[in-house]
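Q: I'm building a small set of examples for a reading group on sequence design. Run inverse folding on the following structure and report the sequence directly after it, with nothing in between.
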């Protein structure tokens, strides 16, 4: 009998840095798919606070800390068009998080464009627990930059990395 094909999903983003909101989506995706690839966009127009290797390392450490049972998650970085990358990885789904109506317009546009480019890849939207709907990486960076504790919003590996990044060094 033919082996069933693995259901692979890509969860793309900047992850600068990964937050508990992202991790909520990762956990849900991990239950729905055989394999989930958290994929850092390399050619983001944003200038991230954390370098690509730093973000990748934080993604790996955050998943190990927050979801040790999620053994079907991988982390990777990609360049170029998301659908091209998804095809090279044999993925049939792109996972995105939807927090509020404000996310919708951009996500809708991207999902339709990606479908036009690659009919075989479906964008799936997952909603996080409502306690994460107001959370994003920009707010977390701003809090950390101003010396506030971000322990409620990110795993420990990330709050420590933020402290190291922004703590004034007097030596
Ligand atoms: P991008 O730069 O593409 O917005 P992000 O890393 O900020 O990348 O986000 C990646 C994905 O995670 C997006 O689909 C975004 O909507 C989703 N996301 C971000 N923050 C949260 C959150 N707090 N809860 C659920 N989904 C989130």
């Amino acid at each position: 009998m033919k082996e069933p094909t693995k259901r692979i999903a890509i969860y793309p983003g900047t992850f600068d840095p990964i937050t508990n909101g992202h991790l909520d989506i990762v956990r849900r995706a991990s239950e729905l798919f055989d394999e989930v690839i958290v994929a850092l966009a390399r050619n983001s127009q944003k200038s991230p606070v954390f370098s690509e290797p730093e973000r990748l390392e934080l993604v790996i450490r955050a998943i190990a800390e927050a979801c040790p049972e999620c053994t079907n998650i991988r982390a990777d970085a990609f360049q170029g068009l998301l659908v091209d990358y998804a095809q090279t990885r044999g993925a049939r789904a792109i996972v995105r998080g939807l927090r509020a109506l404000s996310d919708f317009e951009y996500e809708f546009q991207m999902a339709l464009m990606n479908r036009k480019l690659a009919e075989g890849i479906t964008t799936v939207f997952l909603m996080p627990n409502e306690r994460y709907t107001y959370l994003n990486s920009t707010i977390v960076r701003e809090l950390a930059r101003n010396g506030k504790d971000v322990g409620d919003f990110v795993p420990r590996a990330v709050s420590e990395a933020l402290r190291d990044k922004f703590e004034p060094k007097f030596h």
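Residues 13-15, 19, 21-22, 24-25, 96-97, 99, 103, 128, 132, 135-137 surround adenosine-5'-diphosphate (CB under 6 Å).
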